[in-house]
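Protocol step 4 of 5: obtain the predicted structure for the target chain.
Materials: sequence only (see below). No template structures provided, no constraints applied. The aim of this step is simply to have a reference model before the mutagenesis design in step 5. Sequence pasted as it appears in the construct record:
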Amino acid sequence: MVDDSALGWWPRWLVTACLGLVACDGPPDRAPSVGDVDLARGRQLVVEKGCAACHAFPDVRWPRGGLGPDLQAFGRQGLIAGQLPNQPGVLMQFIRNAPALVPGTAMPAIALSDQEARDVTAYLLQLKSR
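Step 4 output (structure tokens):
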């Protein structure tokens, strides 16, 4: 048996640091991931469900609402409704039931299936200013 007290504190620190580095596998993937999606269907749903009546979208000419925030560069926003992290899972929940996540918001709950919410989320997250 080796008496590690003779080696001092630094070998233990070095081994701990190396184990910590091995445990890391790089930075987290921040790319939106919502599974299989249909961006065209997401855009279509934005029009059909009335989102464009309140918000402006880059590829929706009419209606072009001005009541809600302009969403032409939504994919670059850090926060949803100025309060929630702009992440796919949070956005899907917000789209379906905004008042549950942000009480007092003017955005209504919108009836969407899981797949429809994924399609709309993917559509919104790919919006960048053009």
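Step 4 remarks: The first strand starts at residue 79 and ends at 80. The longest helix spans residues 10-23.
Proceed to step 5.
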